[in-house]
Specification:
With 477 residues, the chain is an alpha+beta fold. It folds into 4 domains: 1-103, no CATH class; 109-150 and 185-277, 2-Layer Sandwich (Alpha-Beta Plaits); 285-335, no CATH class; 363-467, no CATH class. Helix content is 40%, strand content 21%. It has 16 helices and 19 strands. The strands form 5 sheets. A 7-stranded antiparallel beta sheet has the order 13-12-11-14-17-18-19, covered by helices on one side. Strand 11 (376-387) and strand 12 form a beta hairpin. Helix 4 (82-102) runs parallel beside helix 8 and helix 11 packs antiparallel against helix 12 (298-312). It is globular, with a radius of gyration of 25 Å. Pfam families: RVT_1. GO terms for molecular function: RNA-directed DNA polymerase activity. This is Reverse transcriptase (RNA-dependent DNA polymerase). Belongs to the bacterial reverse transcriptase family.
């Protein structure tokens, strides 16, 4: 694994300091600390730059606040004054996060760009739905008081394997050493802790996927799960997993080993291994209904309902019906098609004046796909679309996180690429987009994969692309 160097100097670059401030203040403009910072913005940013250049970055004294989490657990939250600690911590995280993220496997979620709670939940649903016709067991475990028991020696060892810049490693460790001088525990509530929470169990991820051979393995911070064909198989693998965690110095809660058909509770949802059968957790539903029953302010009531919809919309049809019934509101437009599917009524396909079908799907922006960073499936491209922004746009039908969306593009490079695809009768492909600078989007050619030509599946055969059914070579123009 190649280590990176000269990281500390990057934190003194003015553009990086300004970007760290932008991220730190995002959606916090009413925070008193942010308001005070804005009043002395330039002086504060210059001060932070001098801290970096002089090697005097220090974390303020921590203040502690007891707060009840979403799972009704009382947690100790570490709080700091906004200036300079919040911006400094964001700056440290930005400098090291790219290398830290590259060291993590795709089965690791939480506090990663494009790898959040919802993606983990939907990927889990997809994995479990494969077993809806067979009996399958799952194992689920987690660490006791994870943040309180992370040893600083383990954090430093992991960072030194990624970075050869000792000054940067010492700077990254400073917030943790100030919080717990005895050398064990990291604060809950600061930005560097989120990255370290993923990094500390990086080797555990490799052990579970490569040595323990756990199928459908996923980890969200300290919670992990996997599946097995029999109860005995899951027990054996869970025993090895717990031993590995104990050797690292962690204690674990009693693991759960059950049939998938009995329901698996994780990430706020309950899964039963049936396709599209993902229920929002009952306790969270009760909490939402209890809170909204005590609210009379219409604006606050709508905020509560919108927050609940953020989770309920990923659940099954019953979750969406509950939301409609309790709020008295209709489903948002992009979910209206659910009613047609449930009743078996086929929707009439809309066509333009030339007889070309519309892409009748909810819209998605290019910015969302570039943040996702992965290839998405595309099965339709319409040219010459007129929108409110002008003529000559292209409309693409793309599959993103198990849902179809309409993507409007006007980039010359993207349009030329799809012109080539249409010229060669490509009807389905995997394609990824990237920002080439200043929101100038292009196709990431390294991730392009052609799936169908003339509606027929194609595969790679040697150094050629052939039709899957006849093995006849596909001739592109």
């Amino acid at each position: 694994m190649k280590r990176e160097g000269h990281i500390y100097e990057q934190m003194a670059v003015w553009e990086n300091i300004v970007e760290a401030e932008r991220i730190s203040t995002n959606r916090k403009m009413r925070n008193p600390g942010v308001i005070r910072h804005i009043g002395n913005r330039w002086r504060n940013l210059i001060e932070i730059q001098q801290f970096v250049l002089n090697g005097t970055m220090r974390t303020d004294e921590y203040q502690h606040e007891q707060r009840v989490s979403g799972q009704d657990k009382l947690r100790d939250i570490a709080k700091l004054h906004f200036h300079p600690s919040h911006i400094q911590h964001q700056l440290i995280t930005m400098a090291g996060n790219r290398r830290i993220d590259r060291s993590l496997i795709r089965h690791t979620y939480a506090s990663r760009k494009g790898y959040g709670q919802i993606l983990c939940a939907t990927e889990m649903k997809k994995s479990l739905s494969k077993y809806r016709r067979t009996e399958r067991w799952y194992g689920q475990g987690d660490v006791c008081k994870y943040y309180d028991n992370i040893p600083h020696s383990l954090i430093r060892e992991d960072l030194e394997r990624l970075f050869k810049d000792k000054k940067f490693v010492d700077t990254f460790m400073e917030p943790f050493e100030r919080f717990a001088p005895e050398g064990k525990g990291i604060p809950l509530g600061i930005r560097p802790s989120q990255s370290i929470g993923n990094l500390t169990l990086k080797d555990f991820d490799h052990f579970m996927t490569e040595e323990n051979k756990c199928a459908d393995y996923k980890r969200y911070l300290d919670d992990f799960m996997f599946t097995g064909a029999t109860k005995g198989e899951v027990k054996r693998k869970m025993k090895r997993a717990i031993k590995y965690l104990h050797d690292l110095g962690f204690n674990t809660h009693e693991p759960k080993i059950h049939r998938i058909s009995e329901g698996m509770d994780m990430l706020g949802f309950v899964y039963y291994g049936v396709k599209n059968d993902m229920w929002w957790r009952k306790s969270d539903k009760k909490r939402w209904l209890r809170h909204r029953s005590k609210v009379t302010n219409k604006k606050r009531l709508r905020e509560l309902d919108d927050a609940a919809w953020g989770m309920l919309k990923w659940g099954n049809t019953h979750c969406k019906r509950l939301w409609c019934m309790k709020t008295g509101r209709e489903l948002p437009k992009k979910y209206m098609g659910v009613r047609y599917k449930n009743t078996g009524i086929k929707r009439t396909e809309r066509k333009d004046s030339n007889g070309v079908p519309f892409i009748d799907e909810p819209k998605i922006g290019m910015e969302m796909l570039t943040k996702f960073g992965k290839a998405v499936e595309c099965d339709r491209c319409l040219r010459g679309i007129k929108t409110s922004h002008g003529e000559g746009r292209y409309a693409l039908r793309v599959l993103f996180m198990d849902n179809w969306y309409k993507l409007i593009v006007n980039s010359v490079e993207v349009k030329n690429f799809f012109d080539d695809m249409l010229r060669n009768n490509v009807t389905r492909l995997m394609v990824a987009f990237k920002d080439d600078g200043n929101k100038h989007y292009v196709v990431d050619l390294d991730q392009v994969e052609i799936l169908e030509v003339d509606g027929r599946k194609v595969i790679e055969y040697g150094d050629k692309i052939v039709f899957e059914d006849t093995k006849q070579e596909v001739l592109f123009h």
